[in-house]
Amino acid sequence: MQMLRALILLPVTALFAAPPVPAPSGLSKYVRPFVGTKGEGNTYPGAQMPFGMVALSPDTDKKEYNTASGYEYSDKTILGFSMLHLSGTGIPDMGDILFQPTVGETRLEPGTKDLKEKGYQSRFSHDRESASPGYYSVVLDDYGVKAELTATARAGMLRFTYPASKNAHVVLDLSHVLLHKVVWSNVRQVDGQTLQGMHLVKGWAKDRPVYFAARFSKPFGGLRLFSDKKELKYDSFKSYRYLSSTSGAGANLQAVVDYETGKDEQISVKVGISPLSEEGALRNLDAEMPDWAFESYVQKARDAWDVELGKFEVEGTDTQKATFYSGVYHAFMAPNLYTDSDGRYRGQDQQAKMAKGFQNYTTFSLWDTYRATHPLFTLVQADRDRDMIQSLLAAYDQSSDHLLPIWHFWSNETWCMPGYHAVPVIVDAWAKGMTGIDWEKALEACVASASHPTFDGLVDYERLGYVPFDLENESVSKTLEYAYDDACIARLARGLGKTAIAERFEKRAQSYRNLYDPSLKFMRPKDSKGQWMTPFNPLEYKHLGPFTEGTTWQYTWSVAQDVPGLIGLMGGREAFTRKLDEVFQEHEKRTDDGVEDIEGRIGEYWHGNEPSHHVAYLFAAAGQPWKTQALVRKLIDTQYGDQPGSLCGNDDCGQMSSWYIFSAMGFYPVCPGDNRYVIGSPALPKISMHLSNGKTFTVRAEKFSAKNVYVQKVTLNGKPWSKAWLSHATLCEGGELVFTLGAKPNKAWASKPEAAPGSMRDVQP
What's the predicted TM-score (pTM) here? Predict the structure, then answer.
């Protein structure tokens, strides 16, 4: 023990003779993968390719609900390194196929974080930990082992540098998963250096098999298999026989590979992953990691990230660049590739499918990402966005319910969050001129999803014009979410010449009016008999009550498809902005019991949750753009940064980061599907966005400073611009948008009614 403690105190350079992996030199050098790993962000610091299937990262906890990505920066121990993770979600899952290098006594359980129960987890410190795109490393203090990780799209490599030991191990724990339960797993030895197997997880996704193939750089010194903590041995005298001496199965299954190691000896494990089969996992591994050149895979990952990060060029301080490029990094982590190297994937019907003409994707957090992430993709990831829409339509074809995905996760429908928000993702892409999609088929899928007789109160919604609170939970949120999605369907139907469909859904898109209470100037729950909920406290939050993760203070503004209509209901622009002012003020007598995502709070504006994300931009739609400018800059300055705790809420598969990217450029897609971006105030001196069509759109902020948040004037390609919005067509033409900023509001700029964006109905198909 004294010798081990002495080793722990040695500097890293004394422990490990091999030269460290060089720091990135391209744009990757600005990315801080630890952003969002502390607190509510729920990101992870491990290795991943852009939109890759494999996300190889350390897990510090598998039981805490609030550690949804598996890694919390405040933790002091690492359980091991698992192959798959969710980025920024509010619900834990994944953490599949965990490897942990150990020295000394073999332990099969991770133990407890307080170390009162010893296990295979190890203490670590952040000063011996580093992360950059495609690379992660840490020293496991309890073992004197340095662990390094890198990844390709479908495979990952773990490199462990051991001390001299006659008792070194790699523990493979197939029972490990975040929060949920492994119901079955198996493993078998293929040869003296290769293991293959799978585990089946019942979790947020109810039926999720993960297959793997793991090849070790050094022949096994020994292999031991354990089920329910009992070593599996082929013994004909036992009453229960196992399949063989080199394979095992069970719900609580571990494999331990034993070695004798020399000082600073490196042992690597490369692991392929597949949703379909062990053979698919092995093909993925051999296709993407044919050799052991760890540094070359790190460089390939960095090169891939530099290409994606290079879609933006920014000027600013190192902190500003780190904040911006870390946001781009997180926005481009999901959805995840869900196709084996041969084009096959597991379909929504759990059968093997072949992706023909597209790459299949999963991890669609649509309630979040329809707002800004997918609109961002239409600008700079158009080909991938097309594949994602093809994936959504393929899932519709395979769905036994004939529904577009709601929250799609490894060929499972989680039914998480209200609405049918695959619709705006599809319609936004159509409205922006995407080709290569069968739009007639897309309309069919949208209409079917909005008409399903058993889905979340849709029959009552169409019959009554709202979802009644006595028959369905989250009734107000569902009404408002449906109405927006319906406006998108109506626009697509008009564009395709389907007049009857368009009229049906235009009517439904006005359903928000039926829940507006003019006496309170709030959206208010109504029962199936048409009576208002009484009593009703606008500040009250109730889990599975009439609102989803919020109150009417946030949801009253969820009428992006018809902001002029909402302004009219509230009595005009002045009354509307007075009420909007109140959102950003403190209120008393609130009840927050059990509410999630009340983070990034400015009064009743909660930036940590998506329903608020467009609200600051509504001032610009109502003739007071200077208030939008001040609020957006305040949110950027206070809710983002380059530190582990810099995200105020779940990144939600890139939505929180995408809000920042748009807002830093000075505009935001308040209503995806209508092709307009509402102007705010840029947060960097200069940003150039290289579009998927080959053109470049540049935003330049003259007189930029922390105090100069107000727009004095704007020019587009040298000509004065006096509207509070830009069109998608304008962006796609390329050019330069120049803001002149100042410390005091210019209330004359873009404040006239004709300068404001209108409703989605105003936009021509």
Answer: 0.96
